[in-house]
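Researcher: Here's a chain I'd like modeled. Treat it as a single chain, no partners, no ligands.
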Amino acid sequence: MSAFPSDIAFTPLVKAIQSAKGSRAAYAKMEQCRGWQTTVTPDLVAFLSGMDMFYLGTSNADGQPYIQYRGGSPGFLRVIDEKTLGFADFGGNRQFITLGNLQENPKAFIFLMDYVHSRRIKLWGTAGVVEEDPDLQQKLADPEYPGKVERAIVFHIEAWDVNCPQHIHKRFPQKAIAPLIEQLQSRITLLEQQVRDLGGAPVPAVPG
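Model: Modeled as a single isolated chain. C-alpha cells:
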C-alpha cells in the first residue's frame, strides 16, 4: 500500500533517481507536508470550468501508451463527485483505441494545460467506459455541440498535482484573439479612410 498519494508516480526507482539527482529531500518534505491531492477541490473545479481541452493517456495490456486529444466547450470535463470526473464521448475516426485500452487496462492519466495562464495539472487514476446510461450522458452532454453522445467516459481520481509553469509557451484560443483582431481591422479601415479623405496615397495591403 502506498504511503503517499504521489507514490503513484514516485516509484522506488523514481525516488532513487531523485536522490541521485538531488531533488529527493524537497519531494520528501512535500510528501510530509502538503502532498498531492486525492479529491476534487474548489481550485480544481475552478480550473476545469475554464478548460476547453485536455489530453487523455491510456495504455493497452502490453503497456503500449496512447494519448488522445479531447476538446469541447469550457468546462466539458465535468465533476461527477469528489473523486470522479466524466465527459461525453462523441463519434470520431472510429479507431476506438482508447476504448480498447480501457477494457484491457483501466489505468489512465489526464493532462490539463492552460496555455493562456501558463498552468498545468496532472491527474492519475483509472477510467472506464459507460454505455447506455442516458442520465449520465445527458449530464455530460455539451449543449453547444450538436453531435450525438455515444457513451460516457468516467475518470476516478487517485492523485493529482499542479505542475510548475516553467517552459510553458503562451498560446491563445481563437475566440480570445478574434475580438482584438476585429478591433484592429476596424481601426485600420478608419485610418485608411482618413488618409483617402486627406488626399494621401492608398495604403498598400499587408501581405497575407
